[in-house]
Amino acid sequence: MNLEALKTAVTKAGERLGEGVLAVGFKSLIGGEELFHNAGHVFPAASIVKVPILLEYLRQKEAGRLKEDHVVPLREEDVVGGAGILMEMHRGIPLTLQDLARLMIVISDNTASNVMLDVVGMDEVNAFMKSLGLADTVIGRKFMIDPNAKFSKNFTSARDMTKLMEMLYRGEALPEKSTREALDILSRQQYREKIPLLLPPKLRICHKTGEITGVRHDCAIVMHEGAPYVLCVLTEMLPDVITADRVIAGLSLEFYRQAESSAAIR
Questions:
Q1: CATH no. for residue 138?
Q2: What is the pTM of this model?
């Protein structure tokens, strides 16, 4: 794998973002090669922080504390805007915890995410991430609420998210059954305009995007048959978010091509 070529691609990607800030985390899951750029820069987490919520839900379910068929009715006070479909549904609709977990990841539903956060506990999520060694990942508020509220920020870094996705892949974050379930849910993500955009359509990619004003993220486990890898790309302070999506997609293609070359050599 030509890491120097990838470093050049990352540098060019950063230049295309203008005043935007770019961070990249890459880890080959077989060869062990890695590349980090601005890995310790702490970003507004946007929706990629929903991955820790999913993992905490699965951890509690595995421990018998939660049941996936437990029903939570949709309440008016739970409904928020932004991404998702629940804001359009009638109040009182019965939702299982499994429904909420899938909605939270597959279409990044903010209402589902807030309900799940109530169920599993914000402090529990933060404690779990800390136990995994993630120093920069903190959930301080629900989604789409007053940004000036106390503990109003959610944060993460490329270093943390790359580590978390690698631990998930290797079964170091959750037991085997829950690991399979997490990867299955992440593989059905419907927002595919970033890391997956230019890759082969049939390639399995387990990932989560994140978007708020001036911010575009995507963190993925790319299940390349011969050379699986983790790629996390985080950006902020973007003058043009559409360009950022294309930059992330182009950078993703460069990493995929290097994985292809590496797999061919093996």
A1: 3.40.710.10
A2: 0.94
